[in-house]
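Lab meeting notes turned into a lecture example. A postdoc, R.K., suggested we walk through two folding results consecutively so the class can see how the record format repeats. The first protein's sequence and structure tokens come next.
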Amino acid sequence: MFSLREVPCTRPPTLRPKSTLCALLRALTATLNPSMNASLPRSDGRPGALPVTFRPRAVRTWGYIVAGIFALACVAMALTLPLIIHRILDSFGFVVLALLVGWFCHRHASVKVVANATHVRIRNAFSSRSFEWPELIGVSFPEGDPWAHVDLADGDTYAVMAAQRADGARGVAMARELNSLIEEHSLTS
């Protein structure tokens, strides 16, 4: 596959504000997904207890950060534009644009897979689908693809945006854990 080494977020004393920014981003990530450390799938190949939820980390964090920054920029434009041009509809347009971009970022940040005893529910950015365990054959995560895919019994595949290449080894571990759950529950169902 690939190797990913974790680069620590430490800075020399002269660049202390960036180190504080790294700590702030870690705290924000923990706030957005408080169970992120506990929800990391086991890599020993043994399936975990059900129900289990898989969520990406990088897209979840950066989606909300980008939405917040964009919303602040649009609100600033909406408030200052009437002072320059005096058109309220332009300001309204910026607010609507901020809401649309915020909704788009939220949809991408809220992808997940929930597996319970009877079925697996996959929520992607713009679609959601439930599968009974016997409908699933396995998980593939081809090199170069941005996210994993579940292989279906009818020969089709379905994207699993919760297991993302952007999460590095964690995304691959999620795909492996989901695959082991499918192997265990597809045979017993």
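The second example is placed directly after the first for contrast:
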Amino acid sequence: MSDNHTRKPVSPSGEPQYDFSQQVGHLLRRAYQRHTALFQQIIPDTQLTAAQFVVLCAVRDCGACSLSEIVKRTAIDQATVRGVIDRLKSRKLLGVRHDDADRRKVLVSLTPAGLELVDSMVPFAFDITEKTFAGFNPAEKLALVYLLNKMCESDVADLSGN
């Protein structure tokens, strides 16, 4: 590790200075930017965004599901999910219908074209994940995924007051 990652800048008063470049939020944002850039470079459907792919995968995994279920599964806010669903619906990748038991509830499901697209994109998604981990050994990959999951789980617990 280089010196700039181990030394903490010190203010004239001797207190450690805040180095934004070493803060978890900044590092997560940079890692996400790297991953998103890889997604855009590798995924062959140039109209498909990472958020759209995640929504398609969530709907594939749960079958016909409500908007709130998609929000919960993807951790994408409701307004964004609505826009994603509208765009995917206009591409005829998703179908939307009212629940027979509760007409107020809208159910979202994959169309055959949506299922075909998801299935054809999955190998590219695996490649994107591997390229995101470029330079990591297997233990580092496992550790990072474990720690990110732990962070996400503690976030859910913190938000629910537990």
